């Protein structure tokens, strides 16, 4: 599985990058898996303003940075989006990035790891709606981090309290379950995509 872990926040003093690094480290221990960290901060796309929906526009004139983003997505078999919750929704920068997509993530699983006062539950709900419009799906198992993420991880994405790993119902176990589910769907769907292409 070629997995991309996407940081869905670009704001100053974010903590999503710490969580994403934690996810990358865990994913790197999985069999037959290569992992890449993808940071939306590296793709400063303008607000989406194409005259036709990307899925229905064979003559698209794509912004160069957006094309770089789309080309990167096309390289992967599966994704994990690490997102905060902003005003009961996903970050605007993530929604904008999703709006540029036509078929790069079609039939590829998307796992979600969210954080915020409600664990990012409402961000997850809005992402699930948007992802369905991109011809793919989010995996059923999601990781919700309700604690203050900045107090859980250091700058390199290491857990500050290793005993968190011992809780069978805690965030570490939930993150592992999310990754395992993404891997299961990716392993099942990759051969099917290859046969139909």
Notes on the structure:
With 197 residues, this protein is of the alpha/beta class. It has a single domain, classed as Rossmann fold (3-Layer(aba) Sandwich), CATH 3.40.50.360. It is 35% helix and 16% strand. It is built from five helices and six strands. Strands 1, 2, 3, 4, 5 and 6 form a six-stranded parallel β-sheet that branches. Strand 3, helix 3 and strand 4 form a beta-alpha-beta unit. The mean pLDDT is 96.
Secondary structure elements and their pairing?
Blueprint: E1 2-7, H1 16-27, E2 34-39, H2 64-74, E3 78-84, H3 92-99, E4 109-115, H4 121-132, E5 137-138, E6 143-145, H5 171-196
Parallel strand pairs: 1-2, 1-3, 3-4, 4-5, 4-6
What's a quick, concise take on this entry?
This protein is of the alpha/beta class.
Which features would summarize this protein structure in a list?
197 residues; alpha/beta; Rossmann fold; six-stranded parallel beta sheet; 5 helices; 35% helix; 16% strand
């Amino acid at each position: 599985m070629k997995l991309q872990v996407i940081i869905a926040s670009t704001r100053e003093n974010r903590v999503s990058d710490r969580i994403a690094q934690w996810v990358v480290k865990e994913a790197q221990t999985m069999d037959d898996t290569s992992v890449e960290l993808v940071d939306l901060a590296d793709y400063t796309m303008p607000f989406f303003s194409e005259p036709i929906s990307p899925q229905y526009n064979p003559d698209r004139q794509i912004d160069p940075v957006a094309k770089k983003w789309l080309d990167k997505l096309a390289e992967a078999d599966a994704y994990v989006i690490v997102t905060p919750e902003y005003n009961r929704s996903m970050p605007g920068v993530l929604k904008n990035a999703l709006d540029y997509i036509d078929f790069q993530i079609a039939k590829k699983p998307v796992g979600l790891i969210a954080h915020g006062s409600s664990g990012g539950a409402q961000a997850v709900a809005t992402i699930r709606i948007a992802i369905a419009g991109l011809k793919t799906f989010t995996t059923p198992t999601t990781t919700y981090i309700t604690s203050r993420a900045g107090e859980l991880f250091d700058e390199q994405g290491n857990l500050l309290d290793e005993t968190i790993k011992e809780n069978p119902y805690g965030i570490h176990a939930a993150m592992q379950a999310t990754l395992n589910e993404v891997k299961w769907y990716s392993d099942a769907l990759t051969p099917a995509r290859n046969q139909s292409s």
